[in-house]
Amino acid sequence: MSTIIAFSGTHSTGKTTAFHEAVAALKRMYPNLHIGAVNELAEQCPLKILSAQNSSINLDSQRWIFSAQICAELEAMNRYDLVVTDRTVVDTIAYTIVGGFSPVARGMLEMIKTHVGVYDKIFFMKISPGLKVVANGFRDTNEVLRLKVEKVLWGLYQELGCKPDLWYGRRSLDNLLGNCSGRKKEVCPCA
Tell me, what CATH number does 55's domain have? Predict the structure, then answer.
C-alpha cells in the first residue's frame, strides 16, 4: 500500500499552495517513485457548495465531496507509491458539522474511523491571524465560519486519535524531505 501525505484545514489557509509545493519537491527528490496527487475536489462538485455565491453549506454537496474524497484516495493508493492529497475526509466532516448536519457528520465519522489510518502524515494548516481571505469570486470569505470549521476540525482529529503536525511553510517542507536522510532515493520519504 502507498504512503499518503495529507494537508488539512479550513479554506484559504494555503493548503493548495503547500500541496503543490510538496508534490513538486517530492517528484524532484524521488524521480523513481510513482507520485500521485489528489487535488481539491470541492470545486468539481456538481452541486451547490459553500462559495462566494452560496453562503450556506449544502448537505448533498457534503455527501458528494465526502464520497469523492474517499474514492479518489482509494484509487490513488492503488495506483501510486506515494500520494499527496489537498484535503482529508475529516475536513468534509467538519464542514458538515458546522453546516448544522451533525447526525449525518457522526455517521460519516463512524465510516472513516478505519480510513483515517491510511494517512501516514497529516499537515494541519491553521488560519493565519490578521490574514483575510481574498475574494476571488469562488471562496467564501466568512471569517467566523472559517474559525468554527478550524476548531471543529482540530477537535475531530483529537477525537479520532490523530496527531496532525502543524505546517510551518518551508521548514515543514524541508523536514518532510529530510525524513529520508541517509536512505536511498528509491525509498518512500514517510515509510
Answer: 3.40.50.300
